[in-house]
From TrEMBL:
Source organism: Pusillimonas minor
Signal peptide limits: 1-27
Statement: the UniProt record of this protein carries the keyword Signal: yes
UniProt cross-references to Pfam families, sorted A to Z: DctP
GO BP of this protein: transmembrane transport
InterPro entries on file: DctP_fam (IPR018389), TRAP_DctP_sf (IPR038404)
Transmembrane segments: none
Keywords: Signal
Presence of the UniProt keyword Signal in the record: yes
Protein name listed in UniProt: TRAP transporter substrate-binding protein
């Protein structure tokens, strides 16, 4: 009897081992192109966490391997996923503003200062209004994100009134930020965020538009010590996580469903929460180091709203370009969803 029990136990162990080996052999590995450093919080707290979640959700049948270096420049990452150069990529929709004009609304001023609520609201809006648009074909969108509202940062003075921006050279990115600065009397200087330190040190710019966390993460804390926090954000930026559509379709239905349990709304919430945590931590650090934080005057707030209203009106008028029949309804849905999520 004991010998039979031992034999049965050995058979069970052998079967389990074989099954485990089979999972390992048959596992699908997805390559992920990442263009921020391995120590950046988006790598450690968002992308690697999502990759681990995918492996766990699929019980090891799908793994995500982050490539040692990106396979293209940041603006190329949507196309890199669409063409299958990398299986999974992430990036900024603003890097291709004309292509993704349907999403401009989420980057308008006064649109939100809670990254988690904004990101989930944007995902819900994409699913309801945009997921079937030709712009998004060729990839499966796995999540979106915003950073919770950008601020105005200056190296030498407080920005409180509209006049404070006159003739100030401000680093920025994207058409919305450019128009904002131009109509408020500033001189926009287009450059990627990571270049802000060099631009400030060389005197090319006087200030920069960034989320609070970037002042620290882009090593600019010694050069940007005056910060103007605009309630509900001076602007924002929209991001994506995407997988090549053909690669996605080759996965089993069970694995696709499993991956979506940790993607979509789940990923968008993770993205926004991490940004909110980074913002809170940066505020504490900068205040401890004597940085000056300012509130816009009523006149500056009125000017921001005036410019924002003009940008919004022009964007709505261009609806034929981005194929949304009723963009006002889409924006209303997004803003109501954001308010409800922020209140919870």
């Amino acid at each position: 009897m004991k010998m039979r029990q031992t034999f049965n136990a050995l058979k069970l162990l052998a079967a389990t081992a074989l099954a485990t080996c089979a999972v390992g052999v048959n596992a699908t590995t997805l390559t992920l192109s990442n263009w921020v450093p391995p120590t950046h919080f988006l790598t450690t707290d968002v992308l690697q966490v999502w990759a681990a979640n995918v492996e766990k959700a699929t019980e090891g049948r799908v793994k995500v391997r982050m490539l040692p270096k990106p396979v293209g420049s940041p603006p190329q990452h949507w196309e890199l996923a669409r063409k299958g150069v990398a299986d999974v990529t992430w990036g900024n929709f603003t890097y291709e503003p004309d292509r993704f004009k349907a999403l401009w609304f989420a980057e308008f001023p006064l649109n939100g200062d809670n990254g988690e609520a904004q990101s989930v609201a944007l995902w819900d809006t994409y699913e309801k209004f945009l997921s079937d648009k030709p712009t998004f074909q060729g990839v499966k969108l796995l999540g979106v994100g915003l950073f919770g509202g950008g601020a105005i940062h200056h190296g030498k003075k407080d920005i409180v009134s509209p006049e404070d921006l006159n003739n100030q050279k401000i680093r920025m990115g994207g058409p919305i930020q450019k128009r904002l600065l131009e109509e408020m009397g500033a001189i926009p200087i287009a450059a990627p965020g990571p270049q802000v330190y060099d631009l400030l040190q060389s005197g090319v710019v006087d200030g920069s538009l960034n989320p609070i966390e970037s002042v620290i993460n882009f090593r600019a804390a010694d050069l940007l010590k005056h910060h103007t926090l605009v309630p509900e954000g001076f602007y924002d930026a929209t991001f994506f996580l995407a997988i090549n559509e053909s690669k996605w379709n080759k996965l089993s239905e069970a694995d696709r469903k499993a991956i979506m349990t940790v993607s979509g709304e789940h990923f968008s919430r993770l993205w926004g929460k991490v940004y909110d945590d980074q913002t809170r931590a940066a505020l504490v650090t900068l205040k401890e180091n004597g940085h000056k934080f300012n509130t816009p005057s009523p006149e500056l707030m009125a000017k921001i709203k005036q410019v924002s209203d003009g940008i919004y009106a022009d964007w709505v008028a261009d609806k034929a370009e981005y194929g949304v029949e009723n963009p006002e309804e889409m924006v209303k849905f997004y803003r109501e969803r954001y308010k409800a999520l922020k209140a919870n």
